[in-house]
Task: structure prediction
Amino acid sequence: MNGYFTPSYIARCATLAMVLEVSGTPKPGNIDRDHDYVTTKYEDFLASAVGVYSILEKACSESGIGQLILDASSESVLWQTGGNTHFGAYILLFPLIKAAARGNIGQLRTDAADIVKETTVEDAINFYKAFSMVEVRMKKPEDLEADDRELDVSGTGSLEELGRRGITMYDIMQISSKNDMVAREWVDGFRRSFEAADMIKNKRKTGTMNDATVLTYLELLAREPDTFIAKKYNMDKAVYVQGLALDVIERRMTLKELSNRLYLEKINPGSTADLMIAGLFIALLSGMRV
Amino acid sequence: MNGYFTPSYIARCATLAMVLEVSGTPKPGNIDRDHDYVTTKYEDFLASAVGVYSILEKACSESGIGQLILDASSESVLWQTGGNTHFGAYILLFPLIKAAARGNIGQLRTDAADIVKETTVEDAINFYKAFSMVEVRMKKPEDLEADDRELDVSGTGSLEELGRRGITMYDIMQISSKNDMVAREWVDGFRRSFEAADMIKNKRKTGTMNDATVLTYLELLAREPDTFIAKKYNMDKAVYVQGLALDVIERRMTLKELSNRLYLEKINPGSTADLMIAGLFIALLSGMRV
Result:
């Protein structure tokens, strides 16, 4: 057990990960230090990241993941006026925080993969309550298979249905993983989060913290279509953004051009930002300094 | 006692105050989200603000103010590579945090004024250790009266001298108050910090969080010569900046012009930034939301 892995240390790494992610600029399409949305500002993300510290610290020693997501979603809006800021990030952060609290950085990934499998029906119910509260557009009913349609959170009777069918939060993430890259992390043992962490750490060795954040974000965007875009618009739009990110990497377009275009077209790759937060958290936890 | 005044709530307000202060842009001369120095970046301030959270929380229940400043100065540089970031702010934050921990927001100012008077020789010794560690240019020997010259932290034997003469941290601040507006807050019962808080809260009612931060900073700059500038350069330079700030307020110059000029001339009003952090902390504590 590393002496640094106190609950406070883990929670500070998680808060700082959220602060650094939203600060990275230009981060095409998403809120950053130089780009607000009409209803949500950069400062809302900063306030939320600091405000939920107490829930991040609590996650080290108590409460299930569903309850923690519900608590963090409630706490966040006491600190800012921009509504939902970090819902997707919580889905990744809380299992990683609980894994970090076990104290073995070498086993962080396998511990996180185990922890998500241990989630319960109660986690599922609390997750759905939080989901409903923040009105995050996680999935549309038509995205689900027929059998899963009744689990749509906007429908009535979903909570009872979870209990009756014994569906855990891990089950929900498994169902969602087809169309959601955040949920996919639960099923894939946080592969992309750890890849992002390695990319961030490597880029930080030769560049600034901002470069490391922005360039990793760009690479993630070019690797896979962002599922937040796919759900908000459609898969074609998500693939279009993936192609544009590749254009920037291969120097057919500047980062600034991509940034301007996505803001103009109101396309925000929200799931990629969630992965970035997980990656930054893992990188900070393993000793990276800004 | 307000239920919200847990140590965690107080510390989150203090961290967020530091995060919001450094984020306010354009904040002429100082580091902000769009302005780095060569050796210190925006991200260093963010990381320091989050990294010292544990010391801010600890301040609610234990340790003297000198020890806390020493601890925070040490903790800060474990999180970032930009060196000293918040030394002046700690001098204001720790008494205010200890006052907040007493739980009566209505008495915050009188409690803080009492708390600084209760500081001891041990606080003075720890403060000087921290001061020496971060090499902050708090005062030059020639600024002190003859009798106080041997207290200059860069001289040898200062620590023994403090003990021999029974000089407390409050005494040091009283000596420094002639030439240091942060020290002056200890003597004046935090008058400027609470004025700043009122200005921030009022401006936030009709504008964005960033507007409230930047416009309050500008007004503080126009009210009094910044003593950090006076010590780094001379009083003429500090008065020159005060005049320029007034020019912006009276529309003879744009904020952007002032900002460009101060960055070009490498003039950073550091003490005004410290007052802003104290003001933001008080405003957040008393319920302001970003």
